[in-house]
Amino acid sequence: MTAKPLVRADLAMRPGYHSPQIDVDVRLNTNEAPTALPAAFHEALHDALDNVAWNRYPDRSSWALREALAERYQRTPEEVFVANGSNEVLQTVMLTFGGAERSAAVFEPTFAMHSQIAKTTNTAVIVGQRSEDLSLDLDEVERVISEHSPNIVFLCSPNNPTGIVDPVGTVDTVLDLMAPTNGLLVVDEAYGQFTNTSAVDTIGEDVPMVVSRTFSKTWAMAGARLGYLLGPAWIVEELYKVVLPYHLDSFKQLAGRTALDFSNAMDAQVAAIVSERKRVLAALADLPVTAWESGANFFLFKAHQMPGNDVWQALVDRSVLVRNTANWPRLENCLRVTIGTKEENDAFLAALTEVLSA
């Protein structure tokens, strides 16, 4: 028998990134939008598809989509990079600025894919810790940068899985700390539209920072896998040297452009989710739980007297699925819950009340 090819030694024993999917009535575990884009979007996209030359490669530069995004953010198309979800955006950044003998800094707990993608691209990961209340500790950020001079620093605001929004001024402070290192600051704003602060206005040709966003959450397009980055034109140019040719297919480009024509619908859905988030968090105040304030479309909580794994299983038994983070570092007994429709949120609250009173 022929010997099996060997996987890279640094990858061989590494677990992948997984989010369990279970057949339940209420699924609140993956931070998806609770409702789809309006029927008019589907009709417009259907009509536009008739004009796609499927026998031809897609526009390699995705220029029309980049123009549309640039207009929304009052940037130039040269400052926009688009890819297959924000994960490919971040992977391309890591392939361009990370790699062997380079490092990336993360501050835990945060989005697991930052470390996962860094390690997959053979980039060393430097782990800093957040404060006891899970907010970003700028003293710790300063320590990590001064001791390790990472090539890349990840910030995530609102942070996943905590939902915490970094205070205004955080990005400027971190950029000042990074100035001697010639490093790149990556601000992950996958949930940026659910809060009122953003690093986008800080972007400039002389600012070594990029901001990553996605169509999956606010635009209700998780099924399309479409993400984008805003940053200095010279960085975007470097990213397009690295990404595979024709990586973004014609359908995604068209779907993204069409969705941008329905900004009012997106804004309305975001407002509805924010309103529901406030309502659900207010309801949790009457239960024996600790819940963190959130600027995202999800929130983190833990029960006072019941192990998180038991709470998670009891909710599943009542056909409600949330994200089990109870065994994650620094998140002992915590669970993360996506904001769904009013009916889904009521079902979660009823199930949780029953579980905690049993």
Description:
This protein is of the alpha/beta class and 358 residues long. It has 2 domains: 26-37 and 264-357, Alpha-Beta Complex (Aspartate Aminotransferase, domain 1); 49-261, Type I PLP-dependent aspartate aminotransferase-like (Major domain) (Aspartate Aminotransferase, domain 2). 37% of the residues lie in helices and 16% in strands. The protein contains 11 helices and 12 strands. The strands form 2 sheets. It has a 7-stranded mixed β-sheet with strand order 2-8-7-6-5-3-4, with helices on both faces. Strand 9 and strand 10 form a beta hairpin. Helix 2 packs parallel to helix 8. It is globular. The model has no long low-confidence stretch (mean pLDDT 95).
The helix content, as a percent range, equals 25-40%
**How many domain modules?**
2
Strand content: 15-25%
CATH topology of the largest domain: Aspartate Aminotransferase, domain 2
CATH class of the largest domain: Alpha Beta
Strand order of the largest sheet: 2-8-7-6-5-3-4
Rg, please? 21 Å
Q: Could you say what the CATH architecture of the largest domain is?
A: 3-Layer(aba) Sandwich
Number of strands: 12
Low-confidence stretches: none
**Which structural category do the helix and sheet elements fall into?**
alpha/beta
Span from first to last CA?
57 Å
Shape descriptor: globular
Q: What composes the largest sheet? A: 7 strands, mixed
Elements, N to C (H/E): EHHEHEHEHEHEEEHHHEEHEEH
Superfamily (CATH H level) name of the largest domain: Type I PLP-dependent aspartate aminotransferase-like (Major domain)
Question: How large is the count of helical segments?
Answer: 11
Mean pLDDT: 95
